[in-house]
């Protein structure tokens, strides 16, 4: 594109306020042209967000711009006064953030929050403003805006909140839109809608969009040009197509390679059932009134039936709140089922008492989503891993336990001496490995993996998944793999169960489900998954 | 919401019973009614007969908690605890041990207490918030540091020194206001202004510092960043985004004490000779007047519980996310 | 704040705590320090309360305002009582006959004395009481006594005294004297019983029940018959316990529901005195006003020698009272009370009790060799001082029943004497009471018959007479006595065990005084331990006699040695009288008791003096008390206050008081010019703080990113 | 007097204070193993302020500790006494008294200004001719070592120098020892040293000059104000620490149980603390203390010397203060436990079938420790201030116990004097203010370092 750039960043550097020598950003430079979507890609901590904040002069107190300039229509924003800056923010350059819920003022109506921008930058009277706002809300696709204009953020769904954010950003017809991870917190289907929205807006309004994301899929789908950020630098800048076909830097290559391969599927052979769930129901009571009588039930899981064979992986797919996690907890006997049967090796788990359950616990283990909160920060890795062995009375001497731990650590590709460290000394990926080691410590037959990779960066995610598969081959352990990310399923799961509103809508062999989805919801999900080509 | 309040009120009953039980035990675990009688009869020529009469008249001639030689329900009802403490639920406070009607005393003394407490409270909060906002405006600057240092020093000074010093300088040295006393009506401000000012000043350290931290927490939140990205100016951010949200935690701390204002401030009333409930309590405790103490404790806890309920209600009003149940 | 200051300027001076007065009226401003409990004449028994009710209630007799030693004069009575004597068959006998069984006091009243205006006496056309209510609901609009629009009065009659005495005899009124007087007034005990036998739900008309010893002879004459000889009884007749009480008032206060609103005799007095109570807020203050119906009562025209020179007789013959209103504010803390006096807002340094806290005393007085003088500062302010040696004694007592310090053996006596010498009372008074008191030489204080001035009057066991003044014996002397008592250097001469003595106090075992006392005992090697307790426990210990040493005090009811010596009468020990015995040290000396009985029945006379001397000697020898002293009170009066001669016993002295209001207001303005500069400074200060803040904000608004330094705008 | 003949008096508070200090040090050492909390402590001490305030607090605590070693001196054997039995004075001394030397015993007759040689009020004296005249009498002890009063000021200067140098020497020795023990790290030892030196010099000066003059004058009864203020330290420190210490076990157990087991346990605990906290604190304290006093008075047999009575009452005060502040901590812990027990690692523990006790001990307790710690330091200053107020009202510590509250209480009326007697108030004020200020600043830092909320903010 040869269009004049509306906003151009010239070798921008940002450092810590008190120790400005070690830089957070080093000589960042790029241009934004109208109607173009420029994607800034990088893994967490690469400095994407800092860039955007620096451009808006919204850096947190700890950080400070050490050099460089931001030219907006030819004039340097850094040399503008704070007052002039307020005139630019939201009016000429607008911004949307990752977590829409926290980014909206919880105690103000969304209408007021949009109106605020208008009040600041336009001369419209209140009537005109209201009209304008309703228009905006329609444009961003918020159903029945006349009513919702007086709602509070928490009354809206995540997608709707993000739409409101966009509405705020667009309120004063800005020339530049900075979108900082606008879809990370959203389910795939919503993500697709939002991205499409941004896409269309940039086209219709000749909007220059700076899209900050870590999801290559998203980039592929929406961006025109790509800048790859790595440790505070832009190491490669290319037009989208060229970037994906032959990336220059090998870091870029790793990024692309780390995207899960979605062409090959694991073929599954029917095996005898290890776990079988019949018509599982988990309902939570809703209390009300002076005497707290139960007046209604939240049906988290409403009649789920599935079986899982030895050494098999069953992926339980669904969007947030569909009850997949609750299912997992019920199988672990952490939540008490309302009805139904969970049979494991002939024992009906949900009827067992705490003590009767105890011996079975070593057979079923779990890996949690958040690698940061899933380990007690005050225990060494050794004690974290051996905790299960002790409580489940594997009858090992301390030395034997330690040996076992070492062995496990090696199995999950960590160093033996790591056992004396504390969790917060490890990266997310490493922690997830420790969590796996902990699960394996009591050599279980079934591990329930609750979104084990969704908090990880793409590259580490791939590694963890590979590890899990290896272990399955070695130990013949079965996984119930709970996830919202369809893209990782093909190479991972033998069979897939798609869950919606507490029910399983479709259950079958991975290939079948992903290639010829029967249920409309499954199809919708698949459509939403960003494709690389 | 209504149902909620009902539930809270129901929940209050066992609490109040417990409160009564505690005070009751406190008083009668070591004191026998005879002791109380002696404490209230005169100095000279006290006969056993007189004590006997006093105890009988005051109705202390029952067993404390359980009446063995009564039968049926009377075993419970025919005791001091039932007749003295549980009667309070009917808001029948009875008479003080010196024969005066407690309800009237409480009512008459409430006025001065409030006259002192409410201004101190309102002005105090207002000033604290203003100061805190200013400081937050200059966060991460030397002004901020200096202010915090000032706050901490202020709150490190015992309230006694504020009162003693203030009274000495303003009233004794400079003769700007009466040293102590109270006149109801138009003259009142003359006596109240000094205690109020002192009360406010002595509160600034703690209050402003607390509000500052609350504001700072809010300032770092995403929606504030959003507001800035919208182009809202610093002041706008503070007043339209930070303040309303920071008010929520402030509510919890503040609303709960509002009813307790009725109880008056012990020190202030003692030092400035204001005939409020604070000094009333003090005298009662010193005179071991169980009748008054149990009443004040009862009233106090009722007000406290009221405060809790008020807090929740005010919360639902301030924060659309909160629903009572 | 500024606004308030402006409005403040309308006042003469900003710190005037007193409410504005009506023009032309003379208002007295006073204070009291303890919250009043009882105002019922038959119940109240404390000096603080007497300060008020003695202005309102009058007894048949009162003390002469000026004359010393204290003498009685008729108040409501026409003359002094005519006393006649009867034997047990009610036959008249001469006094000197051996122990008459009864004495009869006949009191004749002055005519047409009228009560203060009071709703209880309000009448309607049919001459029926206006305010009588069937049930509580019909009287609800009257919250306090002052809500009643109508009031009335009536003449005082002898029956009112009878009614008053019957109220005293009624146990329901909890008169502290009930037990005591029952021993004297004939039939009082039975009366109490019969009264309690009645139905006491509502008002009980005491007139219907006879009290044998009290007889209404005619409209103006009352006869009281008491058992045996008790000359001191006439003094009781000068106390508010014998004040008249109109039966209408008693009935009025028994209206249904009045009790719950504190509308009782115990709260709203009704009397014939010079003042009436028009405001009674126990929490903030009390107001007395001139009683419009007060009889013509003229300022005394003769006084003690020297009174004329002191100007106490300038108002002789003028009708009293001289002030229209007296307002008293409750001042719990001594500091503000004193400061207000110094600012001229109080006319006197205080009205009740010891009102110059010792720290203030240093400022007010300069203690010099020949007593206590006003400091220069006070003299400049024209402040006058009036002193008063109270007929009282504060002392430490040994429990004579105690195995260690008690007993009548020579050794024990020596031990007690040794301690009595060791505790340097003079030093105590010097340090802690600023010399406001005089060390006791015996149980009888000055101004009371039996007290002897000079060399003859000293306690030879403790003092020597050295160049014209008593001088305490040396510590060595005390040590010698102690050794003789079997405790050389305070160690048991057999076991060497240190002698540890226990002193019961309510004060707590700390603070300067406690330290000082410990050191006094250490002087002769005795270790002192305190056993502190609250007042109730203390009384209990005293009652059960399980104390060793204790502090005690006695304030005379009337100026007669009997009122002091009975504190040592064997029949008064808790044990013997089965009550809170007045004989706290359980001193039971048969010889003494015998003399006491004789002395009691006598009028003052040389013979009596002789008896007293012998009794005092016994007490000095046995030393059941030690470190005794008689308090001497100092009261400061602002220059505009006159006729302030303190009376040791009588409290009804307000009617004599005179004020020069013109001078007062002029002085007040002069003493209370506010200092304004701190205000201005304060305002300036805040401005100084605000201003740079604003500028800083401005600067911040026009801030750009300066890349070289790390100073950044808002982030 | 040789040490071995004295009879040690062990007061409950002494015992508890020592226990407390020991346990806290142990606790801190246990924390060192965990790098996270080690970092947090490092963060606290890496700031100059943190180091300085900590050392100030430490010196206060040290004084309190020294003052908590009580003993009774023996009486000289008397005639006829069998030799093996020794009798003891009923005066209780503490080691601190020994260090302070004469300061406690040197009583004047009444007020005297700081450093004064003459009494504050005139008295009448008799001269050689025997006629009485009024003047300010010389003080009995202050400056008694001077033979010529004229060189008062020079001597003052000189003695101050001596005192300061003494302190300096001592401080240098201390620092040397410290240098020896501590390996150098990122912490600002320089500040530590200077603080120590300053404190030592100050103490040295106070000790030396304070034994010659009355640095802060004397009070009504002629007691040395400086001595009283220093003795007040023990009370202040004790009340600040014991009250929290006493209430902690209850609060922790109940709070955690409520948060962990939920259900009826939770309801009961909540009922308990709502009930307690709904009673007006001051009333509860006052009533309790008065009743406790009555109890003490009823059983004088329990206590051998007066001090023990005061001590018992003091314990009572700590206890009731603990009770009143108990609810707050309990509430916090409950909430935190509720949060933690939802965290994955607790869930994982459940998945491993770990027993409740073990879960609480291993997972919950260590992770609420910061709350306990923060409450401890935050409450400290508040309690010290509370003591003063309560003592003023008359429901504080026993009036025989040297405490700042009692000092203020006694000193109040002195403001009405002319010229004003200010030193008693100032003495109490200065010592109290220093402690509370240091405590506040320190607790701020601790809070900042240990409060997870703040940690996130720093992460940003």
TrEMBL record, chain A:
Keyword annotations: ATP-binding, Hydrolase, Nucleotide-binding, Transport
Transport recorded as keyword: yes
Gene3D superfamilies from the UniProt entry: P-loop containing nucleotide triphosphate hydrolases
MF-aspect GO terms: ATP binding; ATP hydrolysis activity
Any GO BP annotation: transmembrane transport
PROSITE patterns reported in the protein's UniProt record: ABC_TRANSPORTER_1, ABC_TRANSPORTER_2
Enzyme class: hydrolase
Pfam families linked to this entry: ABC_tran (PF00005), oligo_HPY (PF08352)
Enzyme Commission number(s) from the entry: 3.6.3.-
Stretches assigned to the ABC transporter domain: 9-256, 275-526
Family assignment from sequence similarity: Belongs to the ABC transporter superfamily.
PANTHER family from the UniProt entry: D,D-DIPEPTIDE TRANSPORT ATP-BINDING PROTEIN DDPF-RELATED (PTHR43776:SF7), TRANSPORT ATP-BINDING PROTEIN (PTHR43776)
UniProt protein name: Glutathione import ATP-binding protein GsiA
Species assigned in the record: Parendozoicomonas haliclonae
TrEMBL record, chain B:
Signal peptide positions (record): none
Superkingdom classification of source: Bacteria
Membrane topology annotation: Multi-pass membrane protein
Subcellular location: Cell membrane
Any one Gene Ontology BP term: transmembrane transport
Pfam families named among the record's database cross-references: BPD_transp_1 (PF00528), BPD_transp_1_N (PF19300)
Keywords: Cell membrane, Membrane, Transmembrane, Transmembrane helix, Transport
Listed GO CC annotations: plasma membrane
Domain (ABC transmembrane type-1) ranges: 110-314
TM helices/strands, residue ranges: 9-30, 114-136, 148-171, 191-211, 246-272, 292-315
DNA repair in keyword set: no
Family classification: Belongs to the binding-protein-dependent transport system permease family.
Name by which UniProt lists this protein: Dipeptide transport system permease protein DppB
Species: Parendozoicomonas haliclonae
From TrEMBL, chain C:
GO cellular component, one term: outer membrane-bounded periplasmic space
Domain Solute-binding protein family: from-to ranges: 155-574
Keyword vocabulary terms for this entry: Membrane, Signal, Transmembrane, Transmembrane helix, Transport
Primary subcellular site in the record, as a coarse category: other
Entry-linked Pfam families: SBP_bac_5
Compartments it resides in: Cell envelope
PANTHER family, sorted: PERIPLASMIC BINDING COMPONENT OF ABC TRANSPORTER, PERIPLASMIC OLIGOPEPTIDE-BINDING PROTEIN-RELATED
Name of the protein this chain belongs to: Heme-binding protein A
Gene: hbpA_1
UniProtKB/TrEMBL annotation, chain D:
Keywords: Cell membrane, Membrane, Peptide transport, Protein transport, Transmembrane, Transmembrane helix, Transport
Compartments (UniProt record): Cell membrane
ABC transmembrane type-1 domain sequence ranges: 233-443
Domain of life: Bacteria
A GO biological-process term: protein transport
InterPro entries from the UniProt entry: BP-dependent_transpt_permease, MetI-like, MetI-like_sf
UniProt record similarity statement: Belongs to the binding-protein-dependent transport system permease family.
Name this polypeptide is given: Dipeptide transport system permease protein DppC
Source species of the chain: Parendozoicomonas haliclonae
Lineage: Bacteria, Pseudomonadati, Pseudomonadota, Gammaproteobacteria, Oceanospirillales
Gene assigned in the entry: dppC_1
């Amino acid at each position: 594109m040869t269009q004049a750039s509306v906003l151009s960043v010239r070798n921008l550097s940002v450092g810590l306020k008190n120790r400005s020598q070690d830089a957070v950003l080093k000589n960042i430079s790029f241009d934004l042209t109208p109607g173009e979507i420029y994607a800034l890609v990088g893994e967490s901590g690469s400095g994407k967000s800092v860039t955007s904040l620096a451009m808006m002069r919204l850096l947190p107190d700890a950080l400070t711009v050490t050099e460089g300039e931001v030219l907006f229509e030819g004039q340097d924003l850094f040399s503008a006064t704070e007052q002039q800056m307020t005139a630019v923010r939201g009016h000429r350059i607008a911004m949307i953030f990752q977590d829409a819920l926290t980014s909206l003022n919880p105690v103000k109506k969304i209408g007021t929050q949009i109106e605020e921008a208008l009040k600041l930058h336009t001369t419209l009277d209140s009537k005109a403003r209201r009209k304008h706002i309703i228009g905006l809300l329609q444009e961003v696709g918020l159903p029945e805006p006349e009513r919702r204009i007086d709602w509070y953020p928490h009354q809206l769904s995540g997608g709707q909140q993000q739409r409101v954010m966009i509405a705020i950003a667009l309120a004063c017809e800005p020339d530049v839109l900075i979108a900082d991870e606008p879809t990370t917190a959203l389910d795939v289907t919503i993500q697709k809608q939002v991205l499409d929205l941004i896409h269309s807006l940039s086209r219709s309004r000749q909007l220059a969009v700076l899209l900050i994301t870590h999801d290559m899929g998203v980039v592929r789908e929406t961006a025109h040009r790509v800048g790859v950020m790595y440790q505070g630098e832009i190491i490669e800048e290319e037009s989208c197509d060229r970037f994906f076909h032959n990336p220059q830097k090998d870091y870029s290559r790793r990024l692309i390679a780390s995207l899960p391969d979605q062409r090959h599927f694991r073929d599954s052979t029917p095996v005898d059932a290890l776990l079988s769930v019949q018509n599982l129901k988990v309902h939570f009571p809703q209390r009300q009134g002076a005497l707290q009588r139960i007046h209604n039930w939240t049906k988290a899981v409403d009649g789920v039936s599935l079986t899982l064979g030895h050494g098999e992986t069953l992926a339980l797919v669904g969007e947030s709140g569909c009850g997949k996690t609750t299912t997992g907890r019920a199988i672990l006997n952490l939540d008490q089922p309302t009805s139904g049967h969970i049979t494991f090796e002939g024992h009906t788990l949900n009827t067992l008492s705490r003590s009767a359950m105890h011996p079975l616990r070593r057979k079923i283990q779990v890996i949690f989503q958040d690698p940061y909160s899933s380990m007690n920060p005050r225990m060494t890795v050794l004690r974290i891993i051996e905790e299960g062995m002790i409580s489940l009375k594997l009858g090992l001497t301390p030395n034997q336990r330690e040996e076992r731990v070492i062995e496990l650590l090696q199995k999950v590709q960590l160093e033996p001496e790591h056992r004396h460290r504390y969790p917060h000394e490890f990266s997310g990926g490493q922690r997830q490995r420790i969590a796996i080691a902990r699960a394996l410590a009591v050599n279980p037959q079934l591990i329930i993996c609750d979104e084990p990779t969704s908090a990880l960066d793409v590259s580490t995610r791939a590694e963890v998944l590979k590890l899990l598969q290896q272990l399955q081959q070695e130990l013949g352990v079965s996984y119930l793999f709970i996830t919202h990310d369809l893209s990782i399923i093909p190479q991972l799961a033998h069979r897939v169960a798609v869950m919606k509103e507490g029910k399983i809508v479709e259950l079958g062999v991975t290939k079948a489900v992903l290639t010829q989805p029967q249920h409309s919801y499954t199809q919708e999900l698949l459509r939403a998954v960003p494709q690389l080509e | 919401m209504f149902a909620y309040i009902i539930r809270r009120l129901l929940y209050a009953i066992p609490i109040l019973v417990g409160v009564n039980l505690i005070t009751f035990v406190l008083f009668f675990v070591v004191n026998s009614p005879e002791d109380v009688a002696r404490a209230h009869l005169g100095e000279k020529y006290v006969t056993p007969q007189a004590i006997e009469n006093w105890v009988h008249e005051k109705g202390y001639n029952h067993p404390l908690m359980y009446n063995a030689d009564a039968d049926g329900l009377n075993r419970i009802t025919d005791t001091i605890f039932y007749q003295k403490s549980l009667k309070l639920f009917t808001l029948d406070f009875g008479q003080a041990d010196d024969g005066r009607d407690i309800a009237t005393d409480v009512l008459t003394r409430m006025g001065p207490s409030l006259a002192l407490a409410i201004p101190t409270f309102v002005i105090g909060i207002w000033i604290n918030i203003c100061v805190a906002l200013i400081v937050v405006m200059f966060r991460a600057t030397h002004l901020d540091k200096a202010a915090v240092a000032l706050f901490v020093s202020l709150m490190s000074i015992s309230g006694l020194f504020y009162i003693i010093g203030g009274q000495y300088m303003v009233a004794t040295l400079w003769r700007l206001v009466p040293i102590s006393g109270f006149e109801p009506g138009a003259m009142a401000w003359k006596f109240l202004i000094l205690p109020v000012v002192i009360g406010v000043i002595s509160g600034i350290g703690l209050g402003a510092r607390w509000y500052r931290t609350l504001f700072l927490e809010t300032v770092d939140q995403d929606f504030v960043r959003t507001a800035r990205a919208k182009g809202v100016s610093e002041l706008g951010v503070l007043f339209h985004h930070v303040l309303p949200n920071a008010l929520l935690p402030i509510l919890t701390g503040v609303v709960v004490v509002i009813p307790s204002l009725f109880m008056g401030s012990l020190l202030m009333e003692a030092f400035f000779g204001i005939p409020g409930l604070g000094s009333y309590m003090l005298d009662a405790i010193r005179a071991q007047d169980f009748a008054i103490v149990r009443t004040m404790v009862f009233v106090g806890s009722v007000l406290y519980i009221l405060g809790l309920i008020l807090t929740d209600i005010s919360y639902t009003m301030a924060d659309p996310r909160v629903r009572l149940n | 704040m500024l606004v308030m200051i402006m409005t403040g300027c309308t006042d003469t001076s900003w710190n005037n705590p007193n409410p504005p007065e009506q023009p032309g009226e003379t208002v007295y401003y006073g204070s009291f320090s303890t919250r009043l409990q009882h105002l019922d004449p038959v119940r109240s028994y404390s000096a603080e309360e007497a300060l008020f009710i003695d202005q309102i209630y009058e007894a048949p007799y009162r003390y002469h305002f000026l004359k010393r030693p204290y003498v009685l004069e008729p108040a409501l009575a026409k003359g002094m009582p005519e006393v006649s004597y009867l034997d047990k068959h009610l036959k008249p006998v001469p006094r000197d006959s051996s122990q008459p069984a009864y004495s009869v006091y006949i009191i004749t009243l002055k005519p047409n004395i009228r009560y203060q205006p009071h709703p209880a006496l309000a009448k309607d056309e049919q001459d029926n009481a206006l305010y009588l209510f069937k049930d509580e609901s019909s009287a609800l609009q009257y919250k306090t006594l002052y809500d009643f629009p109508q009031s009335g009065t009536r003449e005082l009659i002898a029956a009112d005294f009878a009614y008053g005495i019957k109220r005293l005899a009624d146990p329901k009124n909890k008169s502290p004297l009930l037990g005591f007087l029952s021993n004297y007034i004939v039939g009082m005990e039975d009366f109490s019983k019969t009264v309690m036998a009645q139905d006491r739900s509502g008002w009980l008309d005491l007139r219907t029940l006879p009290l044998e010893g009290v007889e209404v002879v005619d409209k103006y004459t009352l006869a009281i018959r008491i058992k045996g000889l008790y000359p001191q009884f006439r003094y009781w007749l000068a106390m508010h316990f014998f004040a008249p009480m109109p039966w209408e008032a008693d009935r009025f206060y028994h209206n249904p529901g009045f009790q719950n609103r504190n509308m009782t005799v115990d709260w709203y007095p009704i009397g014939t005195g010079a003042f009436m109570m028009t405001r009674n807020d126990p929490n903030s203050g009390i107001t007395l006003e001139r009683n419009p119906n007060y009889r013509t009562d003229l300022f005394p025209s003769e006084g003690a020698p020297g009174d004329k020179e002191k100007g106490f007789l300038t108002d002789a013959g003028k009708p009293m009272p001289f002030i229209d209103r007296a307002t008293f504010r409750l001042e719990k803390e001594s500091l503000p009370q004193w400061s207000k006096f110094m600012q001229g807002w109080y006319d006197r340094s205080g009205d009740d009790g010891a009102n110059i806290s010792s720290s203030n005393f240093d400022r007010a007085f300069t203690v010099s060799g020949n007593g206590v003088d006003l400091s220069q500062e006070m003299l400049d302010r024209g402040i006058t001082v009036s002193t008063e040696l109270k007929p009282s004694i504060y002392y430490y007592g040994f429990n004579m029943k105690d195995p260690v310090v008690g007993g009548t053996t020579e050794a024990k006596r020596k031990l007690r004497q040794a301690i009595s010498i060791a505790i340097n009372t003079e030093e105590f008074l010097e340090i802690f009471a600023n010399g406001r008191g005089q060390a006791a030489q015996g149980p009888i204080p000055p101004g009371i018959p039996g007290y002897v001035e000079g060399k003859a009057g000293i306690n030879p066991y403790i003092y020597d007479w050295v160049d014209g003044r008593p001088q305490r014996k040396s510590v060595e002397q005390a040590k010698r006595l102690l050794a003789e008592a079997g405790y050389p250097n305070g160690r048991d001469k057999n076991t060497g065990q240190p002698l540890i003595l226990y002193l019961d106090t309510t004060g707590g075992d700390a603070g300067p005084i406690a330290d000082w006392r410990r050191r006094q005992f250490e002087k002769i090697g005795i270790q002192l331990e305190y056993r502190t307790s609250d007042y109730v426990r203390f009384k209990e210990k005293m009652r059960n006699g399980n104390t060793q040493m204790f502090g005690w005090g006695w304030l005379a009811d009337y100026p007669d040695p009997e009122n002091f010596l009975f504190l040592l009468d064997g029949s008064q020990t808790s044990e013997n009288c089965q009550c809170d015995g007045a004989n706290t040290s359980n001193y039971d000396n048969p010889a003494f008791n015998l003399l006491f009985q004789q002395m009691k029945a006598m009028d003052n006379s040389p013979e009596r003096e002789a008896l007293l001397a012998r009794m005092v000697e016994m007490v000095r020898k046995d030393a059941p008390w030690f470190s005794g002293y008689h308090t001497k009170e100092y009261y400061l009066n602002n220059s505009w206050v006159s006729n302030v001669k303190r009376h040791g016993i009588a409290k009804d002295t307000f009617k004599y008081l005179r004020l020069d209001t013109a001078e007062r207001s002029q002085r007040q303005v002069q003493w209370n010019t506010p200092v304004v500069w701190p205000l201005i400074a304060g305002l300036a200060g805040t401005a100084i703080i605000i201003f740079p803040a604003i500028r800083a904000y401005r600067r911040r608004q026009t801030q750009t990113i300066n890349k070289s330094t790390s100073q950044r705008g808002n982030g | 007097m040789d040490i071995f003949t004295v009879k040690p008096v062990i007061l409950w508070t002494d015992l508890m204070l020592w226990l407390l200090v020991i346990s806290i040090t142990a606790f801190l050492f246990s924390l060192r193993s965990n790098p996270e909390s080690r970092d947090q402590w490092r963060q606290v001490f890496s700031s100059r302020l943190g180091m300085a305030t900590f050392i100030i607090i430490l010196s206060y605590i040290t004084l309190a500790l020294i003052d908590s070693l009580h003993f009774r001196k023996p009486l000289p054997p008397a005639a006829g006494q069998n030799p093996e039995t020794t009798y003891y004075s009923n005066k209780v001394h503490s080691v601190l008294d020994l260090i302070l030397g004469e300061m406690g015993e040197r009583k004047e007759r009444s007020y005297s200004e700081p450093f004064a040689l003459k009494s504050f009020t005139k008295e009448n004296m008799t001269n050689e001719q025997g006629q009485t005249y009024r003047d300010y009498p010389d003080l009995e002890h202050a400056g008694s070592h001077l033979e010529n009063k004229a060189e008062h000021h020079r001597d003052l200067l000189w003695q101050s120098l001596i005192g300061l140098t003494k302190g300096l020497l001592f401080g240098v020795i201390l620092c040397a020892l410290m240098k020896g023990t501590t390996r150098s790290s990122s912490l600002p030892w320089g500040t530590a040293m200077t603080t120590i030196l300053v404190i030592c010099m100050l103490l040295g000066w106070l000790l030396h000059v304070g034994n010659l003059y009355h640095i802060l004058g004397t009070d009504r009864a002629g007691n040395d104000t400086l001595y009283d203020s220093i003795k007040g330290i023990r009370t202040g420190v004790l009340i600040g620490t014991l009250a929290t210490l006493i209430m902690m076990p209850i609060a922790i157990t109940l709070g955690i149980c409520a948060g962990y087991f939920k259900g009826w346990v939770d309801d009961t605990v909540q009922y308990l603390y709502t009930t307690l906290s709904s009673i007006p604190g001051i009333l509860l304290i006052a009533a309790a203390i008065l009743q406790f006093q009555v109890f003490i008075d009823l059983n004088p047999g329990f206590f051998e010397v007066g001090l023990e009575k005061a001590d018992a009452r003091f314990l009572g005060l700590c206890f009731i203060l603990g009770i009143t502040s108990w609810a707050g901590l309990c509430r916090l812990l409950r909430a935190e436990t509720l949060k933690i027990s939802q965290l994955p690692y607790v869930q994982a523990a459940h998945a491993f079938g770990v027993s409740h006790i073990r879960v609480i001990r291993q997972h919950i307790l260590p992770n609420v420790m910061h709350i306990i710690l923060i409450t401890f330091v935050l409450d400290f200053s508040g309690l010290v201030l509370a003591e003063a107020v309560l003592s003023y009202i008359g429901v504080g510590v026993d009036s025989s116990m040297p405490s700042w509250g009692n000092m203020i209480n006694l000193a109040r009326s002195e403001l009405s004097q002319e010229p004003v007697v200010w030193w008693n108030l100032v003495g109490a004020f200065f010592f109290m203010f220093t402690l509370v200020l240091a405590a506040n600043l320190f607790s701020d830092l601790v809070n900042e370092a240990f409060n997870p909320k703040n940690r996130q903010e720093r992460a940003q």
